[in-house]
């Protein structure tokens, strides 16, 4: 097991280098001039040249690439062209809001999804099954921007329970921070719940047909134990894969939700960086998202052993 | 009976007095935090280092100019106490107000002004307009300065106070300029009624009331005159989604929302919690041609474009509700000292496709598709570009529409090749005709205009810059309009207004070209 983890971590290095190279060239070759964005509409050529020199953008691409790569290997992503601060500092500040919302959404979404999925599987082809399928279908189908605007309209504008937008950390607002988390988290959780519910239902239906479930039932084990200990644990492999994949999406930042609710997270940072051609920030965001996917995939793979001890790691 | 009458009269008087006292107590209330929702974030807060007008709009609360514009676009001394212009227009003597405190605890003096002026001249877009004509500045004493020019220079005061983009000259503390030099300033010390408390990039800017603010004694009028900081705090929240800005006003989370959808105007008007603010003068939709390559390197092709377009149709397509736009040929709106009623006579708004075809033939246009390069994120630019394409195709011109995000548009339009027509919003509130020199003339801005006509235009501006007499200068401005509508290096399609909304408890809000919140207060 330990050797397997070390091997996987070592394999991360070439993957990250390949992602970094692609990130550098894609961001530098895409159209759009960051200097003119920073300087505004009526900048003169002299102002443009001066800022290009200041930012080192007047150097040939290949020279910029090697200088950038050597810095990135040391963990230095340079300075944000727009925000005038080190990229690593900017990114670190933005991870916290995204992480808070992702974790809250994941907890709500997985709990709701498992509940709906199990309910549907246990009540197969009954009214509760249809109900769960309908809810999960809504979760998958409703676009998040529409749902978020509807939630704002109902719970913020009409009922005034929650703020329309914004974000406050627990250190700033104490428990009041939850008020800012509810609407964006629930929007994201609804989609999560739909995906998890459908996967849970299908995996549980397969598992509930297995002989060992019938054996467990015939031994007189309670229905609750049969479902949670025997069926659910064995059905968890595909479910955990979906959960891991979706959690990676959430941690990478969901720019639509973060933009609508004005949450200063990684998704909001990435989309703003693209709009402003803040190249160092875009590069760091790409590498960050790749890293999240790789690490979460590794964790999901490791978790397979817990749910199914027959899986051996080499 | 007489006694009863007297008592009744006294009672009525007392009631009126109490009522008026309670009303005035309700008005002009100190305290509270105003939350403003503005539509986009800014890179930094240093106006000299960016032409982004959003920075000026917020930092107008922190920094003030030697001169500021009033509601009627008349320049007024602000940090200046008085001034004299030498008869030959070569010298401007400015006396500073005494006892004006800065946010660093020191009194503003000539050294702060000189340091700020030197930086503005080198870095700021407005300073760059003045710099070629500027000779030197002399400090007579701590409160008296003389600005000198080699030749007569008429637009100086107007450009010092310019409300266009970031152009205004503002006074910063000398120690801040010494510390940051040409780099972006991240610590701020000005003389304004508010000081910077906290800036969280991409989230918000919080300004705090400056307790030692020294107000001008002139009557308050937009940016000029007395500024009273009633509010304790002003928070500018950067909210990109317009619907979220609207929702924030509906719930009372925000008291001001910038640029909200005009199609919801009637809904806002019907809501007693919301006040609508239509800004005029505000913007103009300007069509810019690439005059460096065929066909628009020929003035007949440019004239043809004016005749080929139905401006009224474009107004409905670009903006919609006619309460928010109006046809206007002059670059200065009605009421502006430089407005010319006769501008564009005979060509502006004359929709004549046949004449357009004749002029195109005269220009030897070979039928190569015209490339319209425009932004896709702004309604006016996107809808306008689509409507212009439709109208040109109706008269048989092939058009290729290229809609991109702003950084791509900005990069592409800076090149000589690859585009023919570009649509861009310009600020309408231009206090001096000289400011148009920045984009009108030989190879100015993106027009790639280099011909006999462009040099004639340069010559007009050269004369305009030196003429200090208003009447004589106005005649030169009329010459500028004649030349502009004859050679058409670019043209104004129409003027349009943005719609801001305020919560009804925000009182005394003035719908100026840039939002400001001194002299406003929040009703309980």
Describe this structure in words.
- The complex is a heterodimer of chains A (314) and B (524).
- With 314 residues, chain A is mainly alpha-helical.
- Chain A has two domains: 20-73, no CATH class; 91-307, MetI-like (MetI-like fold, Orthogonal Bundle).
- Chain A is built from 14 helices and no strands.
- Chain A has helices at residues 2-29, 34-39, 45-55, 61-73, 87-122, 127-141, 144-158, 170-173, 177-208, 211-218, 223-252, 255-260, 266-276, 279-307.
- In chain A, helix 5 (87-122) runs antiparallel to helix 6 (127-141), helix 5 (87-122) runs antiparallel to helix 11 and helix 5 (87-122) packs parallel to helix 14 (279-307).
- Chain A starts with a helix and ends in a 7-residue tail after the last helix.
- The model of chain A has no long low-confidence stretch (mean pLDDT 89).
- With 524 residues, chain B is an alpha+beta fold.
- Chain B has two domains: 33-262 and 501-522, Periplasmic binding protein-like II (D-Maltodextrin-Binding Protein, domain 2, 3-Layer(aba) Sandwich), CATH 3.40.190; 283-496, Dipeptide-binding Protein, domain 3.
- Chain B has 15 helices and 21 strands.
- In chain B, the strands form five sheets. In chain B, strands 8-9-10-1-11-19-12 form a seven-stranded mixed β-sheet. In chain B, strands 14-18-13-17-15-16 form a six-stranded mixed β-sheet. A four-stranded antiparallel β-sheet of chain B has the order 4-5-7-6, covered by helices on one side.
- In chain B, a hairpin with a 5-residue loop joins strand 2 (67-69) and strand 3.
- In chain B, helix 9 (299-308) runs antiparallel to helix 11 (353-362), helix 10 runs antiparallel to helix 12 (379-394) and helix 14 (452-466) runs antiparallel to helix 15.
- Chain B starts with a helix and ends with a strand.
- Mean pLDDT of chain B is 93; it is low at 19-25.
- The interface between A and B is large, with 42 and 43 residues.
């Amino acid at each position: 097991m330990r050797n397997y983890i070390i091997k996987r971590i070592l394999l991360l290095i070439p993957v990250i280098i390949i992602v970094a190279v692609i990130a550098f060239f894609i961001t530098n070759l895409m159209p759009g001039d960051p200097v003119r964005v920073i300087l505004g509409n009526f900048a003169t050529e002299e102002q443009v040249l001066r800022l290009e020199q200041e930012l080192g953008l007047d150097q040939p691409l290949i020279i910029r690439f090697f200088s950038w790569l050597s810095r990135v290997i040391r963990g230095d992503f340079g300075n944000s062209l727009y925000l005038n601060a080190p990229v690593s500092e900017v990114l670190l500040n933005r991870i916290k809001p995204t992480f808070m919302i992702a974790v809250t959404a994941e907890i709500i979404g997985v709990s709701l999804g498992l509940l709906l999925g199990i309910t549907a599987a246990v009540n197969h082809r009954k009214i509760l099954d249809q109900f769960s399928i309908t809810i999960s279908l809504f979760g998958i189908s409703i676009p998040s921007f529409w749902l978020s605007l509807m939630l704002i309209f109902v719970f913020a504008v009409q009922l005034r329970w929650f703020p329309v937008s914004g974000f406050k950390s627990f250190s700033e607002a104490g428990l009041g921070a939850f008020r800012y988390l509810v609407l964006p988290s629930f929007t994201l959780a609804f989609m999560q719940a739909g995906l998890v519910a459908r996967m849970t239902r299908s995996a549980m239906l397969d598992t509930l047909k297995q002989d060992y479930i019938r054996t467990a039932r015939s031994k007189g084990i309670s229905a609750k134990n049969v479902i949670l200990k025997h069926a659910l644990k064995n059905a968890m492999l595909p479910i955990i894969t979906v959960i891991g994949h979706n959690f990676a999406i959430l941690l990478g930042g969901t720019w639509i939700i973060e933009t609508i609710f004005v949450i200063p997270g990684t998704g909001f940072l990435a989309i703003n960086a693209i709009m402003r051609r803040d190249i160092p920030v875009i590069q760091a965001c790409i590498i960050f998202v790749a890293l999240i996917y790789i690490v979460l995939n590794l964790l999901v793979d490791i978790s397979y052993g817990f749910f199914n001890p027959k899986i051996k790691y080499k | 009976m007489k006694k009863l009458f007297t008592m009744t009269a006294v009672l009525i008087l007392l009631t009126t007095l109490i009522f008026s006292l309670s009303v005035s107590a309700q008005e002009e209330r100190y305290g509270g935090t105003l939350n403003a929702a503005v539509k986009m974030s800014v890179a930094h807060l240093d106006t000299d280092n960016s032409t982004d007008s959003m920075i000026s709009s917020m930092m107008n609360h922190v920094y003030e100019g030697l001169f500021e514009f009033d509601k009627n676009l008349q320049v007024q001394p602000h940090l200046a106490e008085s001034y004299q212009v030498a008869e030959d227009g070569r010298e401007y003597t400015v006396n500073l107000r005494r006892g004006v405190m800065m946010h660093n605890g020191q009194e503003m003096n000539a050294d702060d002004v000189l340091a700020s002026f030197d930086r503005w001249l080198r870095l700021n877009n407005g300073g760059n307009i003045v710099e070629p004509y500027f000779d030197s500045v002399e400090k007579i004493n701590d409160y008296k300065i003389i600005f000198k020019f080699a030749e007569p220079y008429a637009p100086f005061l107007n450009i010092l106070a310019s409300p266009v983009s970031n152009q205004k000259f503002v006074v910063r503390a000398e120690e801040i300029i010494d510390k940051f030099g040409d780099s972006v300033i991240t610590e701020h010390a000005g003389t304004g009624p508010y000081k910077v408390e906290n800036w969280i990039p991409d989230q918000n800017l919080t300004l705090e009331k400056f307790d030692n603010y020294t107000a001008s004694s002139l009557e308050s009028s937009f940016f000029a005159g007395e500024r009273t900081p009633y509010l304790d705090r002003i928070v500018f929240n950067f909210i990109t989604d317009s619907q979220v800005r609207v929702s924030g006003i509906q719930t009372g989370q925000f008291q001001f929302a910038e640029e909200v959808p005009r199609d919801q105007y009637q809904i806002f008007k019907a809501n007693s919690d919301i006040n609508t603010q239509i800004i005029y003068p505000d913007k103009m939709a300007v069509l810019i041609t690439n005059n460096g390559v065929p066909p628009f390197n020929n003035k007949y092709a440019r004239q043809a474009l004016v005749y080929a377009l139905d401006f009224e149709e474009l107004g409905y397509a670009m903006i919609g509700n006619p309460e928010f736009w109006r046809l206007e040929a002059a670059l200065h709106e009605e009421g502006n000292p430089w407005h010319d009623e006769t501008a564009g006579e005979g060509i502006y708004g004359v929709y004549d496709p046949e004449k357009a075809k004749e002029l195109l033939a005269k220009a030897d246009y070979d039928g190569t598709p015209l490339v319209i390069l425009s932004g896709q994120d702004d309604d006016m630019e996107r809808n306008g570009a689509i409507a212009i394409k439709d109208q040109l195709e109706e008269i048989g011109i092939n058009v290729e529409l290229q809609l991109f995000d702003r950084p791509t548009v900005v990069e592409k339009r800076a090149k000589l090749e690859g585009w023919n027509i570009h649509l861009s919003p310009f600020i309408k509130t231009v206090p001096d005709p000289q400011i148009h020199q920045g984009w009108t003339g030989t190879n100015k801005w993106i027009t790639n205009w280099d011909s006999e006509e462009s040099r004639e235009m340069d010559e007009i501006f050269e004369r305009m810059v030196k003429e200090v007499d208003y009447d004589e200068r106005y005649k030169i401005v009329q010459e500028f309009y004649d030349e502009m509508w004859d050679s058409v290096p670019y043209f104004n399609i129409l003027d349009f207004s943005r719609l801001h909304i305020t919560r009804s408890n925000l009182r005394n809000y003035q719908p100026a070209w840039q939002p400001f919140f001194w002299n406003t207060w929040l009703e309980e």
